[in-house]
Amino acid sequence: MQAKPNIILITADSLRANHLGCYGYPQPTSPHIDQLACQGVLFEKMFAPGIPTQPSHTTIFTGLHPVTHGVVAHGGRAKLARGTPFLAEMLLDEGYATCSVDTLFRERIWFGRGYEYLIDPSLHHLFYASVTQEELNERAFHWIKTVPKGPFFMFIHYWDVHYPYVPPERMRGLFYNGGNPTDRDNHALDEWWDHPVGAMARDTWLRTPSGLITDPNYVTALYDRELRYLDEGIAALEDTLEKQGMAEDTMIVLLADHGESMTDHRIFYDHYGLYDCTVRVPLIVRWPGGKLRTGSRIAPFRQLSDVMPTLLEAAGVQPPDDLDGGSFLKQLTGEEEPAGYDRVIGLESTWQAKYYLRNDRYKFILARQPDLLGNPDRELYDLETDPGEIHNIAAEEPKLAAEMETEVETWLAEKLEATGQTEDPVRKEGAVAVAIWEQHRV
Amino acid sequence: MEQEPQKKNSVVPDPPAKPDPQGVPEEPVQVIRPEDEAIVVERLRELGYIE
Q1: pLDDT tens for each residue of A94-120
Q2: Which fold has domain A344-441?
Q3: What interface predicted TM-score (ipTM) does this complex get?
Q4: Strand locations in A48-128, DSSP E?
Q5: Which of A87, A225, A436, B26 is 20 to 30 A from residue A376's alpha carbon, by CA?
């Protein structure tokens, strides 16, 4: 038994929690991930305080809320301050061998901090998200087998369930129950073509020799096939660890930076909008040598800002004092009872400029500028009666909506004061992708 | 707070049976050509999504 565990942090980009069997999906999309959950601990209410990829990963690696670290937008202007403690850097300082099998550092340089080895097989593709789990695993397994002489930290960033959804040929036929994928009379996706990402899909990965894919059920099946393919990759990783005799000493943390909207809320196959399909994420921890309370599910609210301090504690490293997140390690082992937050407040500033407040009963969404879909600037959902967040009751419950809005604004004012900021970063950045798109349309 | 024990080492099922192709329209074949991927990159770059 090693004194310090190996840690493999896995992001499955755009993996929607409730498309996994262990989160209740009825289709067998994830048998190996489900087994991982049975052998470890699953978080029922893990939330991303910032979406999409760049804000969320900055939170994962710093333990800070996006309002604190400042990276609120994907492709925004803010940079992570150089002095901000970063997970990989801290583990490197503690003697860990560190390796990232990922591409994020090519876009934002701080994602490369602390890694002695940066491996990026997506260089073989024009679009980095086209890299497959097999390409990532091939390099990751080689490194695992040949490099570490002591404890290691590896970050693997899988992109299979991120668009474009082009699963391997052997997945054909799965998860689609008939119909005509290219029916010209099916106009269910027409609205998507007006969005630049939808137009891109129409012009590329949805265009086939038999015609344009028009059936949203088929696109969802493609997503699910990609998930099944990713699931095979997770099984291969586990198998490699087992064969190397490393499984016992290796903590695997599988999570998503954000989920994915299928057609929910008129957001098609993308990851914006602060609804649960996108801000609630899976998080599963397996660590055979860590004496975890295996097979358990932790129900209280937790946030992705809790990941960094948890991994540091597992490595025997004192987390920084001023993090927004807190370690849940002792809850994994049963030394402490499951506990968490009464509420989660999060944001996005890429396709929309909004905040959300989520508690056990309600979701409140507050817009800083109008969105492209024409949604009202205040949305309130009763999740007990309306878990799909369909019926906006802000007008019917104005007192509750006002209270939740005050709660968001008070929290934000306190956070800005504590971090020496004078301006709301979401107002400052706005919806950056929309602004850039509109420049191109002129 | 909730702690629901689950069974360990559950058996991983075989892939689900594929539907009977009789009477079902042929599934389209997705082909991403390099020029398609170039379009994806160009469009996402225009949106500031990638550098």
Answers
A1: 999 999 999 999 999 999 999 999 999
A2: Arylsulfatase, C-terminal domain (3.30.1120)
A3: 0.84
A4: 50-51, 97-101, 117-119
A5: A436
